[in-house]
């Protein structure tokens, strides 16, 4: 196999024990091929020159880590302005939250050109390049413009919205055209792939040539769905370790007379947290038997706090949780335990296992790995129930969950009640089916199938 070069906005250090499944899976392949992981170092140079940045190259065993500094102006326009101020909201169907400013687009292009320039210097002719996510959509086009003839694949971790939504981005043609510089483009779901197909046929008069091949702008790109998974075995091993067992024991002990529900999310407007909290209030209103017994543990890990929309969602959430606790709570029982902090990864499986129900109810999500982690962490003899939004990519694969429309407060509350009352046999059946599926389509399957398809693909110049 060729040497693998992974490019992502941030590097996840595969040596760190806290690294998630993605870093582990990519780390393994990188180690096997003596590969390179290239990305932003996380450092912002206050008085640096736009379009310039120092590259730090270090060795972690057989893996080369190449980390690029960005100057403040570039970082602001590329990361905060364009990637998180335009692409993230629009791709999550939130045109109302997008701020289009031409300066931000300029910064986005400049940083992608900088990535391309620095990366070119490290490449060997046979390298297989795998670029990740919305921060770097035009990177292959920039590399091609500099003469790069390598095989290049792209994976979009977030959803691709329908054509009518995409077309609201002032530079949408340029952005989507850039996807044709790749040999392979991977999406999370069949729905995303369908949106791509509609868009390129309508806006770029692309033709389908062969199975999942699209031809436009004198290039052919292969596009397919590769739903990302988790490292099930690794997560289950983590669940057997001391920290997770202790978390399980103390949580169970503290809430011995309660039914626990759990939510674990980055504090992001796409995750539907206020809608979830309102559905929980509806549960307490409609089904009063849950008062004094059901407790929702909501972990909302801090995220992108420099973007205004994130500060707004935080305030909304705090006020909602406060009002429900004020209306329903008493000295013996508080309906919601809300934590605005990151819980150590080692404790997560214990927390998931101590809970009877998980609420994974994003308004829109590329996949959602929490849904899969919750299933992996359950006791097979007495598993908890997953309540999952139909708008999470995971819903395409996880039909045995209780699928809900998170905008439907009443319907979601009913599904939560159903989950809390589900008989053991039904819980076991649903859980076994879900576990088998996430085992089959785990993160190693994802990595392998994407790279094999990329190796076999070749775009025509
Ligand atoms: C993007 C896409 C897609 C969360 N809070 C804590 C914590 N987490 C961990 C979870 C899980 C990960 O973060 C979140 O993954 P998600 O998939 O839910 O969401 P995004 O961060 O939005 O990721 C998403 C994913 O990329 C992969 O392609 O599924 O759709 O949006 O692993 O456990 N981890 C710890 N403490 C926390 O408080 N340790």
UniProtKB/TrEMBL annotation:
UniProt GO MF annotations: alpha,alpha-trehalose-phosphate synthase (UDP-forming) activity
EC numbers, comma separated: 2.4.1.15
Pathway: Glycan biosynthesis; trehalose biosynthesis
InterPro entries referenced in this protein's UniProt entry, alphabetically: Glyco_trans_20 (IPR001830), Trehalose_OtsA (IPR012766)
Top enzyme class: transferase
Keyword set, alphabetical order: Glycosyltransferase, Transferase
Catalytic activity: D-glucose 6-phosphate + UDP-alpha-D-glucose = alpha,alpha-trehalose 6-phosphate + UDP + H(+)
Physiological role: Probably involved in the osmoprotection via the biosynthesis of trehalose. Catalyzes the transfer of glucose from UDP-alpha-D-glucose (UDP-Glc) to D-glucose 6-phosphate (Glc-6-P) to form trehalose-6-phosphate. Acts with retention of the anomeric configuration of the UDP-sugar donor.
Subunit relationships: Homotetramer.
Sequence similarity: Belongs to the glycosyltransferase 20 family.
Protein name in the entry: Trehalose-6-phosphate synthase
Source organism per UniProt: Herbaspirillum rhizosphaerae
Gene: otsA
């Amino acid at each position: 196999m060729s040497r693998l070069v992974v490019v992502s906005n941030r590097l996840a250090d595969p040596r760190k024990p806290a690294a998630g499944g993605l870093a582990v899976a990519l780390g393994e392949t990188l180690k096997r091929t003596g590969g390179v992981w290239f990305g932003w170092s996380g450092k912002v140079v206050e008085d640096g020159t736009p379009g310039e940045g120092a590259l730090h190259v270090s060795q972690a065993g057989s893996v080369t880590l190449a980390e690029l500094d960005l100057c403040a102006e570039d970082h602001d326009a590329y990361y905060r302005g364009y990637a998180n101020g335009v692409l993230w909201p629009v791709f999550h169907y939130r045109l109302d939250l997008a701020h289009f400013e031409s300066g931000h687009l300029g910064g986005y292009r400049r940083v992608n050109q900088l990535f391309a320039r620095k990366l070119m210097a490290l490449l060997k002719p046979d390298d297989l390049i795998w670029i990740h996510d919305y921060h770097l959509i035009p990177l292959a086009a920039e590399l091609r413009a500099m003469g790069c003839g390598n095989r290049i694949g792209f994976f979009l971790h977030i959803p691709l919205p329908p054509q009518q939504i995409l077309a609201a981005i002032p530079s949408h043609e340029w952005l989507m055209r850039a996807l044709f510089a790749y040999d392979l483009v991977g999406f999370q779901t069949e729905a995303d792939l369908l949106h791509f197909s509609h868009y390129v046929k309508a806006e770029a008069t692309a033709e389908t040539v062969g199975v999942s091949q699209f031809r436009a702008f004198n290039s052919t790109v292969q596009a397919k769905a590769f739903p990302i998974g988790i490292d099930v075995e690794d997560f289950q091993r983590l669940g057997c370790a001391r920290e997770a067992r202790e978390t399980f024991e103390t949580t169970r002990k503290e809430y011995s007379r309660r039914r626990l529900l759990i939510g674990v999310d980055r504090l992001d407007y796409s995750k539907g947290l206020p809608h979830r909290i309102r559905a929980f209030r509806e549960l307490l209103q409609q089904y009063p038997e849950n008062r004094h017994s059901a407790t929702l543990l909501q972990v909302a890990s801090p995220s992108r706090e420099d973007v205004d929309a994130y500060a707004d969602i935080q305030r909304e959430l705090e006020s909602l949780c406060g009002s429900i606790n004020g209306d329903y709570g008493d000295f013996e029982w508080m309906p919601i335990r809300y934590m605005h902090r990151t819980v150590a990864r080692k404790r997560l499986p214990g927390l998931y296992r101590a809970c009877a129900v998980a609420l994974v109810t994003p308004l829109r999500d590329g996949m959602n790995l929490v849904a899969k982690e919750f299933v992996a962490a359950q006791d097979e003899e007495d598993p908890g129930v997953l309540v999952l939004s139909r708008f999470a990519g995971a819903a395409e694969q996880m039909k045995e969950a209780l699928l809900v429309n998170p905008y439907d407060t009443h319907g979601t509350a009913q599904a939560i009640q159903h989950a809390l009352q589900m008989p053991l046999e039904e819980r076991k059946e649903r859980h076994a089916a879900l576990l088998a599926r996430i085992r089959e389509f785990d993160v190693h399957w994802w990595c392998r199938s994407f790279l094999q398809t990329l190796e076999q693909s070749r775009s025509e110049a």
